[in-house]
Request: fold
Amino acid sequence: TELQKRLASSPTFVGFFVCGMMCRFGCQKGKNMSKIINNTFPIFLISLFIISCETKTTFDIDRARSHIDEQNIKYMAFYNNGDASGVADLHVDEAIVMPPHIDLVKGKEAIKQVISDEISAGATDLVFTTLDMYGNEDYVTEVGRFSLNIKDNGKIVMNDSGKYIVLWKQVSKNNWLMKADIWNSDLPIKQ
Reply:
């Protein structure tokens, strides 16, 4: 059966099986119990070590999402307060962003400049809404929507909304930074 195949291929099972067989055959040949214990104890310890190494941690997407949500909150706060440097710092050094209507931008300094240009053009009130998130312990893809306002002298002159995809990289335990980001507007292209 499938269970028997999995057990037979498990290092833990094999270790305990060997210990049991040594005890059984040792007793049958008339060896005293202290020799059996002395011979099987190291194998038992090795088996316990294998058990501890066998434990696999599973990736918790909800935990990753909570950390990424925190990063998104920081991004919105930096952006809405005009802090392009803060936004750029949420990216890995070699990050790529692909804003609409311009060439792709690579690196924190270039990202800082693009965000600064957007903010200088009046973009503010940025809001992210995550629609989906999936991935593994190294990379997570976020799919979402955004909305923002364009203001001139404090007065809203245009509303924009659109969609985005971000590739997040875990650079250290529970520290996620943007590796790639693309977004585009839902507004029709002006003729």
Remarks:
- The longest strand covers residues 155-172.
